[in-house]
Design a protein that fits this description.
Layout (H helix, E strand, L loop, with lengths): L2 E7 L4 H9 L6 E8 L5 H8 L4 E3 L7 H14 L4 E4 L8 H6 L4 E5 L11 H7 L4 E8 L9 E8 L6 H26 L3
Parallel strand pairs: 1-2, 1-4, 2-3, 4-5
Antiparallel strand pairs: 5-6, 6-7
Length: 190
């Protein structure tokens, strides 16, 4: 029996596509829902083109508690057992995180614990780092602070800008996240 996985997005959904396309054949998970907090997120149409169920829970104009209550109800209503945050640009409250403890993964574009939060590529360049990369981690109450499940590294090139570095890291994100999700689901108790 495959574990139902909900993928949460806020934008174009390139990591969502990598995850959804990986969940075929003998994969221990299946995508039960692609959910966005932004009604116009490009990833919604991309998910629909793959025949995936989609939903929008708009965070605008409401309290965090109202947003997260509807988010939780929508995820549970679609049978989600594991959440994969894939460019979901909302910081979730400790109460929401506790409700999904040990069952929520995130991809972050840095080699954690370096550079939690935003502007990771520029921060790596400003620090003169020789390498950058991405991390898949469990979501905990500490922003980008949960246990790391896997990392991929890329060299920082002398001519790199934040944009060129981000593009190379994104290629690795699309490889790393599906593998980490598979490994996580295979190790999960039935």
């Amino acid at each position: 029996m495959s574990t139902p996985v909900a993928i949460l997005i806020s934008g174009g959904g390139s990591n969502m596509l990598a995850l959804a396309r990986s969940m075929t054949g003998d994969h221990p998970g299946r995508c039960c829902l692609v959910l966005s907090n932004r009604p116009g997120a490009g990833g919604l149409a991309r998910a629909e083109s793959l025949g995936l169920a989609t939903a929008v829970v708009d965070h605008r104009g409401r309290s965090r508690e109202e947003f997260e209550a509807e988010l939780d109800a929508t995820l549970r209503g679609h049978g989600a057992e594991v959440l994969a945050l894939a460019g979901f640009m909302r910081i979730l409250t400790p109460g929401f995180i506790r409700g999904w403890a040990g069952r929520m993964l995130n991809i972050h574009p840095s080699l954690l614990p370096k550079y939690p939060g935003l502007h990771t590529h520029q921060r790596a360049l400003d620090a003169g780092d020789a390498e950058a990369g991405c991390s898949v981690h469990l979501v905990t109450e500490e922003l980008d602070g949960g246990p790391v499940l896997g990392q991929a590294r890329v060299p920082v090139l002398p001519e790199d800008t934040a944009e060129t570095l981000a593009a190379r890291v994104l290629v690795e994100e699309h490889r790393l996240y599906p593998q980490c999700l598979r490994d996580f689901l295979e190790r999960r108790p039935a």
